Structures are given as C-alpha cells and as structure tokens.
Batch of 3 targets.
Target 1
Amino acid sequence: MANNESRNRKLKIKEAIDILSQLALPRAQLNERTAYCLLALLRLVPSLKWSESGNPLVGITPMMEFARVHYGKNYAPNSRETFRRFSMHQLVQAGIALYNPDKPDRPVNSPRAVYQISPEALKVVKMYGTKAWKSELAKFKQLAPTLLSQYAREREMDMVNIKTRDGQNISLSPGKHSELICLIIEEMAPRFLHGATLVYIGDTGDKWSYFDSELAERLGLTVKQHGKMPDIVMWMEDKKWLILIESVTSHGPVDSIRRIELEKLFYMAPEKIYISAFPNKRTFARFAPDVAWETEAWVADNPTHTFQRLSLPRPLHLIQCTFFKTEENCKRYLLNCAKDSAFNQSQCQSIQHK
C-alpha cells in the first residue's frame, strides 16, 4: 500500500510538470516546487483524478503545508519567498492563477494574500488525460493574451491614484499603506511642507514607483536601488531640507534604529527632517513610545496638527514635546494627546519643566 501511495505521488508530480510544460511555462518553473503549487491550487491529493480538481483560495504557507502533508515534501519556512517569486508569480503572469481574487485591494505584502486557479485554467486541467485535452489546451493558449490583459485591467482599477501638485498622476498598489501615502502627498505636504518638491515615492508592489532622477542628481543623492528607502522623499529648496517620510500602518515608524539607517543612506544631504505618518490616533498611540527624538509625527485623521519629539533646528509646526525631565513623561504626554478625542491644542501645547 505504501508503494502504491509513493507511485501515485510521483505520478501526480510528473503529470503536473507535464501540464506546466504544455501550458508553456518557462523552463525555470518546470520543477517540483511549481508542481506542488499547481496541485495545491487544485487541492489535488495523489488519490484524486485530474477531473476532480477543485479551486480553493490558498496562501503560500498552506501550499507548503499541502506539499508536506500529501506529498511528503518538507520546505523550510524561509522558502516562502522562493515559492512566491519563482513559482506563483509566473503562474499569475500566465493567467493560470489569480492573485487575491476574493479581495483585489488587499495590500501586496499582506500576510493574508491568497491565490486561486483561474476558471479558464481549471477547465483545461480537468481535461488532462482525456481526448478533450488538446482542444481545450489550444483554446486556453489562444485565449491567454486576452485573459492577461483583462486581469491586468482589473488590477489597475484597484490601484491607489495620487495626483501631485504639478498635475502628475501616480498609481500605487492597493492597500492601507498606499492610501496613507496618498494622504501624505495630498493633505500633509500642502499644509506643512510648502513648496516641497517630490523626489521619490515607494510602493509595496514596485519599490521605486516615482523617482525624479534629475533632481536627485542635482542634489547629489546617489542612492543605490537596493538601499532601504523611506516611503517618501521630498526636497524643500528654500530651507535646504531633505524630508524623509515613513507611512506607518502596521510597522515602520522612524525609531532610533531607522533614523540611523536613513542618516547613513542620505549622508550627503545637509539637513534632514524625519516624519512618521499614521492613519489615525490609535495607530499613533501604539507606536508613539518608539518614535525617535527630534523627529515629527503626523496623524491623517487630524491633518492640521503634527507632533514633534523635542525641538528641531527649524520646527515645522504646532505641538512640541520638549524639556521633559524624563523620557517617560514625554511618552505619557504624547499618548495623552493622541487619546484626546478633540485633539485639543490647548491641552497638547508645549510643556517645559525646569
């Protein structure tokens, strides 16, 4: 019985690779890893026929677990990125799999990301080993370019669009992170960064979504693409400030470590201003103790205010947290301000202890 199970496993993997080959996947994807991805997308255990294929929603980690439980193949946890980049990415590009069909606006880097076999690919795969296989395969190949264009349009419709002051339109991957970047550009910058010019916008999908290479060159910003960029970089010509902004939805404020990283990354800039932007007061309250000294914080649902942790050489705006006897007092002050439902400036003004 064990021998039969082993033979069934090997046969299914061999057939899966044959299907991928006939679907014209690149040579680099004609391997067991991509075969396991296909089998998991179909929920096809060794004992089932191809005609019994299903179409569950499945994430990368469940795919790896499927391979372990049903095919006896163990992958290390750090293999997830390899599955995503070198198997699933190509299956999506080929129109064989769909990415987040249940929630197309799910952020690109979301841990809840899922895949599903496309209806057209499912129809073809179910015919494998039958007389109808070749004709259905030919139909799929003929239809594939149209499918790819259709899915690309659907993904584009879910993008977050930003309009800059000079009229440029920039599209970012869907998700809360991109929505906050949009608010930073359209709400915060006009209020507190008057005259600032956009140099760079990052994106979870395409890290260099916008980059003014000419301005960067003029400023002497020779940042390499593999550098750990902030979410937004802006330049204020009149003050000679380089503004480095992080969009904080689930992680990533400018804490002490991040500030050192950015300091090294932009060592060539004469003066740098660091800003952590948050979608709401609750998120701000969660990260306030981590925000580095001498940096700014902005909360999107109270867009006319900023927090400042200790005074800057040229303070940007209203609320200073300065000259406290202990760091804990300042943290408590910032948290109280964040919890103030009215965000009352009179209660959250500069406090000085002698």
Target 2
Amino acid sequence: MRGAAAVAVLFVSMVWSFGAGALPPHAERDPVQYIAISFDGSRSLEIWEATRAFARKADIKFTYFLSCTYFLHRENRKLYKAPGHSAGRSGIGFAPSADNIKARLDQLNLALAEGHELGSHACGHYDGRPWSEAQWRQEFDSFTSILKNAYANNGLAGEPEDWAETVDAEIRGFRAPFLARSAAMDKVMAKLGFRYDASRIGHWDAPVQRRDDGVWNFNLAVIPEGRSSKPVVTSMDYNFYVRHSHARPRPDRAAEFRDRMYNSYMTYFAKSYYGNRTPLHIGHHFSRWNGGAYWQALKDFANAVCGYEDVRCVTYRELADVLDSIELAKSVPAVLDGEEIRTLSARQK
C-alpha cells in the first residue's frame, strides 16, 4: 500500500460523494484490481508522444482506439466513403499531409513495440445508430483497408513486412463514435471476430458481461462528480468537459476542473478497490480540453493508484486475456463480478 496519505485521499473522496461510513475495513488483498485506460482518436502527434512517455514512466499500458481518416489526407480522402455520405467526407477531417501520416504510423508502431494495444474507433466519426448491418460492415471494412494500406495509399516507405498481418491480429476491440451502438453493429462485430466492445455505459459496479455471441462488454461507468451524490458523469473526459463548461474552453478554471475529475476517479477507484473489485474503465481523447485539466487529472490518478501491488493498469486486450482464460471458460459462462475475477487472477500469479 502507498501509505496513510493515499488512503486518506480515497476516504475523503468517498465521504464527499457517498457519505460517512462508506469505506469498508479492508484494503490491500492478494487478488487484483484491474484498470483499463484508453484514448480515442489518434490525431495529435504531441499527445501520442506524451501518452507514451507517461506510460513508460508509470509502467502502465494503454489502449488506443484509432480513427482511420487520420491515415488519409486531402488528396486521397475519397478512398473513404462513409455509409450515407459522399466519398471524401468525414466528421473529424483528415490528416494534413502524407508526412503527418508517416509520423503517426511511426508513433503507432512505437506504441505497439512498447506493449500498448490498438483498437478501432471506426473512420469518419459518424453516429452509426441508424446504420444497417451492411452499412456497419462497410465502415469496418473501410477501417481495415485504409489502415492496412496506409503506407501504399500515401506513397510512404518503411512499411513493416508483417504490417497487414499486424493489423488483422491487433484490431480486435472497438469503441463506437459517440458511444452510438446498435443491434446491427453488435451482429457485425461478432461476425468479424471482435473480442470486445467498449461502447456501452453502465453503473460503476456492474459485472463484466460476455454476450451470447462471445463478445465481452467493457462498459464505461456512470460515476459521481462534483458535490452531488447523484452519479451523473460517464468515466470519459469529454463528459466532464460538457458538465464543467458546456464543452466551451475555460482554461482559466483548469485547476478546479482537474481536482473535480481527480476526486471523481479516486472515488470510482475506492468504491471498487474496497468493494468487489470490478474492473475500472476510463476513456479519454487525443485532446487537451480546458487547458489540459483532464490529462493532468488522469496522470495524477494513474500515479496515485497504478503502483499498488494489487492493481494492474492494463490494456483491454490484457483484460480480455484474463477473462478468456481456459479456467474462466470452464467456470464462468457469461457474467463476471469482481470476486470471480479476483479468484482467477490469484490462480494465474
């Protein structure tokens, strides 16, 4: 354990949001508390470098959900056609140049070498709720084709010999833009062999669920925030940005907003760590909203808890590996609560 100061922070945070007496009388146990931290988008090269540098220092791993239009530029953007849109349209734009794409591919390959995970965030960042199965298949196929051909499409040298195989092997998880999922999306994901979907929202202590089609649901959590005890914020930086400043920049309040997110994440952690140890799910973006308040809060949170001996800050792939183990397949057919995950984790040490 990190000591009395760290425990005091957790206790104060929980009392603030849940009332006195909320902290159970146990802490550092042998079973593991898992935390999965991810980033959506992939545009900013500076954020690629910053997140990788922090992960090395903190000895943790991230999942990066990529948007494929950042691997096309203005001259070849018509290689992408979103369902219901004309070719060359994207809700988030494209990369500014082939050189920029090369630098992003370099960051991506460095991240892979360092043990991070790559996942799909689709391509043009559209709301896919009304899409049919055929349209979702079109979007998934576009993602795979554009990423596999990122070097060739942009006239870039240095493509790894096994690049296409790496894309096929690596892209096994998905988070939908806007978290806008549908039954049609679920069906196509299962047919394409995805291992997990990180697009859903659930209560902070909801059990991990595996759908009937074999796909794990990794839910972002509805967690307390601010001075209200009502759980009203999803564990994602953009939702804090909307709540704090109505999605309008207020860098002058960065310190305040950093503290509010940090306290919220620490409460989320404490409720699970001192409770059933259901995995935590935190999603951020390649953005520095409100003067970098949320990036600073995330770093401070990870520094505060990821070093505990009984905490693992892992990729979603690593979490899925635990859940997909042979022992789990024999004993837990569809739903895992924290106790079952802890029991399995202890056996695997």
Target 3
Amino acid sequence: MHHLTAMKPNLTILTALLLAQLATLHAAESSAQSKPVPDPALTPIEDVAGLPRVLLIGDSVSIGYTLPTRELLKGKANVHRPPTNCSSTGHGLNYLKSWLGDKKWDVIHFNFGLHDAKLPPEGVRHAAPEMYEKNLRELVIQMKATSAKLIFATTTPVPNGGNLRPTRRFGSVDQYNAVARKVMTENGVAINDLNADIAPHVEKMQRANDVHFTDEGSMLLAKQVVKAIEAQLGLGTRTRVGRQAARLPNVITMTQAAFDRAIAFARMRTSRFISMSGRPCRTRRCGRSLACANPTENRLHASALEWVQSLPPAELRTAVANGADRMKLLDIQKPRTSLES
C-alpha cells in the first residue's frame, strides 16, 4: 500500500505532462489550419533569362487574371506582379516605387479605378474623379520614367448600377474610365479596353452581386491582357491583313507622300479620300470596300490603312507629331517589318 501511495504523485505528474503535450499539439494544428494559404498569384517568381520582363499592377480583378496571363505568356515573357492588391491611385502613389524596384521592365500593364470609385464607408481610399485624374497623371509620369512600354487597362463593370449593398457602393465606372482615357491619350499610353471586352459577358462570367469574375471570366480578361502585351513586345500571330500586306512589298516602299495620306486617313477619317496614285477614290468611305480606280491601288491603300491603324496609339501619335516620317515609323516597328499586327 505504501508503494502504491508513493507512485500516485508520479502518475499525476506524468498525466499532466502528457495532457500538456497534447494541448500543445492541438494548438499547433489549430494554428496551421487557421493560417491562410498564400495566393499563388501573389507569390514572387524567378526570371527566365533572356525573356522580357512584364509587370502587372492592379486590384483583385487583376489578381484573378494574373495566373492565366502568366501561363499564356510562358516561354515568351516573365510576368510579375506586386504581392498585394494594388488598390487605388492614392495607394499606388505610396507604394509604386517599391513595386517597380530597381530592375528593368519591358512592359507595365496597369489599372486603377475600382477602389477610387468605391464610395465610403467601405471606400476608405475613395478618390473623386478630379483627384483620380491628378493621381493618375503622377503615376504615369513615374512609370514612364522606367522607359517601359505602358498599357492601361480600363476598369471592369460593377453590377447593379454600383450598388452592391448599403455599405458597398461605387461611383460611375464609366466616368472614371473616361478620365483615364483622357490621361492616357494625352500621355501616349496604350489602352487595353477590358471593360468593353468583358461587358457583353458579365451575366455569365461575373459573380452575382460582385465585382469579381468566374474563372472563365478571368481567362477571358487574361487573353485580352496577353494580346495587349504581345502587341507591345512585337509578339503574337500574323493576322489576315498582315499576311496580305506581306505579299504587297509596295506598302513598305510606298512614297513618303502616299504614306502621309495613309496616316491622315487613319487619324482624321476625312469624308473624301485620295488613292495611292493621288486620284480621288470613288467612295466616301474608307476600308476594305474602298473602290479606287485601280484595283491594285485599292488593295495597297486598304492594307496600308489597316497597318497604320494597327499601330499602338503612342507610336502613331509620335509618327504624326514627327510629320509621319515613314522611315522612322518602320524603324519603330522593326518587329513588324512584314506588317504583322
């Protein structure tokens, strides 16, 4: 009896130790289960040597199309993004320097808008259209300083007229996009109109009463992002117009005067057009159906016009500002010497 009585304290201590260990293990398991799984879209990537570097900047909508964009550009470009939701223009001004880092970027594809349009109380980073414009201009200045080619993506639609619930409301996305278009056009920044691309599909591809999209919607956006990036990098497949123009070397070797006219057609869309030979066309509408007196000139004219219209806005604006110097434009468009678009 004395021996058993002596063992009781030891058993009690042992039991307490075991219970403490079990409690520690349970706490560790609970902590592991409650710890959020990192979003792979926000995980930094390592560059593949020799490939151009692309930076995606944007909010949670852009996070949704980051992975499919990266996959579609695999082997063509290193697609990076900040490891965070880039939120509003005001937030962007605070953190852009750290997002850009000190390495060279070939293309920066960016969007700000939803968080600026989001109204209080949830919209803690709301910016009125006037402030949005001011912030955008400063952001563009800073990004242009990197010498990267810039692409602005328009802000995607908000359902229910912007009223998702009493505390989650948005101003007019159309108004913010109009402001952004003005800023980008004035600064020669290419515009990727994601709003127009996704708008016909929101009923099917946008989550109910939400600004975010289904996987199918994010893939559609990613494909448009890839097209815009490839255009700036001189990548992508040849279009029918490109194949047609490649068989017409005179489009490249046309006279400066003829090239000037093609530029003028694309930019001004005047009501009366001049054919490549200088003779008036028989129609007042320019395009593939153009009825020039000479069928060969008709094809050359249409191909030249479509090629000029395919140029990114910044390069076209530069060409016009420089007097539409054909040789300068061809030098700018080295990846498109065969008139690929």
